[in-house]
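This part of the workshop introduces the protein records we will be handling. The question running through the whole workshop is how a given chain folds. To make this concrete, we reproduce a full record directly below:
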Amino acid sequence: MEDQNFSDIDMMGNETDEFAGVFDPTYHVPPLVFALVIIGLNGWVLYLVKTRPNLQSNMNLLLCSLALSDLLTGLISIPLHVSCDIIRQTSICVPSQLALRFTSVSTVSHLLMITVDRHIGIKHSLRYNALVTKKRVLITSVLIWSSSIFASLIQLAWIDYNRDDLEEENDDVMKHEIRYDVTSLVLYVVLPFIVMTTIYVDIFLEILRQYRHIKQYSSPGWAETKKRTHHEWKAVAIFSVMLLMFIICWLPFFTVRLQHNLGSDFYYLPSVVEYVFLYLRFFTSVFNPCIYVFGKRDFRQAISISKQKFMTRLRSSSFHSSLKTTNV
């Protein structure tokens, strides 16, 4: 790793030197706590889908793929980030940088495909099952994971993995990093945001058109269709919030990297703001499972059933314990 740019510690600027090379609870414990929460939430989502056949729909398979990406953030990206900050060795910091880039590309790609899936479900509801098949979902997932790995590993083309001095700068590598960061910002933040916004506007107009048409002609299935339309509105709101949170959490990450590469002349941020920006990128991995677990009706029903079964087993266990105590 040829300069500070390849270590996530430099995202905070020189102020991070006071934390670098030593474990500091106030700086390193929060991301570790985040990691545990991320692992718990996303592991729960995967467990629910695995054990509940009614959750194994094509759309939920995409959500599972997203949950797996978020799970890797907690299992790999955050521990490597903290280890890099403490140990400050190339052998740790390069994998940390690659893992963080991989999860960011994977997250936005999954959100984009989930948005497209929702668009097909509303615009072509009668043909949805024919258009969105399990085979196509699996192919899409493979393409997302493959492209994310490529976008991450391509950095090895200019990173000197054998260099041990993290502080030494190299102008050629800096130029590669700037081009790479600008390209990533455009491909994985700006363009997906434009595409998703366009899709959500089209979904909004389509739902509004269907709602007015059905209301005008007062068809016999008006009540049922109105209920279905309400769920579609809710789904649009959920994924719109997911998109908004992605922009809030990841756009600062890319721009702070550019700020570091281009210098303080690009723009200046206080160290506290940079600290917040640094850890906002982990928040999407907590936010995503909360949204589709508590926001989707099928997941809420599965959670309710699991809770009822747990309470039944708990009461049964307490009853048997009471009988044993009485008999004694």
The domain at 4-295 is CATH 1.20.1070.10 (Rhopdopsin 7-helix transmembrane proteins). The chain has a mean pLDDT of 78. The CA atoms of residues 45 and 289 lie 7 Å apart.
